[in-house]
Amino acid sequence: MITNKKISFIIPVLNNFKYTKAIYENITSYFPEDEIIISDGGSTDETLDYFSKVKNPNLLLINNGPCNNCENINAGALEATTNYLVFLHNDMFVPSNFKSNLLEDIQPNTILSYTRVEPPIFPQEHPGKVVKDFGNNLDTFNKKDFELFASDYNSPLQEGGSQLFISCYKSDWIGLDETTFVPPQMWAADDDLHLRFNIKGLEKKVSKACVYHFVSKTSRQGNYQEGERQSNFNFVKKWGFRKSHFNIVYNKKVIVKNNKMLKDQLSIWFNDGKDIIVEIDENTFTQQDFTYIQQLNDIIKDNGEIGTFSIGNLIINIKSLNEHQNNLINIHYA
Q1: Long-range contacts: 150-156, Cβ < 8 Å, 24+?
Q2: Which residues lie below 8 Å from residue 1, measured CB to CB, with a gap of 6+?
Q3: pTM for this one?
Q4: Strand-by-strand arrangement of the 252-257 sheet
Q5: What is the pLDDT of residues 39-59, one digit of tens each?
Q6: Is 131 helix (H, G, I), strand (E, B) or coil?
Q7: What are the backbone dihedrals phi and psi of residue 78, each rounded to the nearest 5 degrees, phi first?
Q8: pLDDT at 224
Q9: Torsion 35-41-47-51 (CA) sign
């Protein structure tokens, strides 16, 4: 057991004081000697006033002013004084065995997701997520039954997903991209982070340590759909794909004959590079051709040759197969 090691609980917040106060009291009741960092991104409720008056040497309140979620999380990570970072949402509950289970599983060069247990709001299960109803808010939460569940839960380590429910050594943290994913965007930021972890060669696993997640009590307030759409748009613009087997970035440019509108619509999948040129005739362009564009990095990698070839109605001229994904790993967020 290595439970005597201190860890930093990092909680980015924006309003929703009721849940922030609840998770603070939850953590301090079980882990009073560990560091709690409340990183505030411009709350206008009682959050700042309340926590600025709390007398706890292990509490660090960071008043970032208005900022995006990525900046908020990065600020908390930078201020952490322990070797172990644990990122939590404020709409969570942490059981009493969380720390001991987490520290049994955490390793260097590993990004460790902790298992989250959720009520059936989004019913699909996947690595790191268990659907089991212990209440969907603080008022209906069955703490006793969840503690019993957590005490028996012993799922083996497995490949983790891309959610931002993670812990890691501070030395392995590479930061969220706070330039690409600006307000109110956040959803693709965790995909971006995990993709960069993959490219860097870090392992991703899910721990038996679990939390209860009341599900999006802060993030999905109001009209969040447009922010989610823009976040996905910016991910594709940055990487040139949304889902890819190879996770490779090429410098590529699209040329559309006689149709600027179509070129503008397709430009999200290109970075105006000069290594690969894709020519399109708008008179013959089809939905299947658009599918090829979405899969273009994988198609180019599979082809693997300098020269010109056609697929569908696309003419692809490969001048260089240089890969540029490593240029996007590290984010200078200090």
Answers
A1: 150/95, 150/96, 150/97, 150/98, 150/117, 150/210, 151/95, 151/97, 153/115, 153/208, 153/210, 154/208, 155/115, 155/206, 155/208, 156/208
A2: 100, 103, 104
A3: 0.89
A4: 252-257, 276-281, 314-318, 307-311
A5: 999 999 999 999 999 999 999
A6: strand
A7: -65, -35
A8: 66
A9: positive
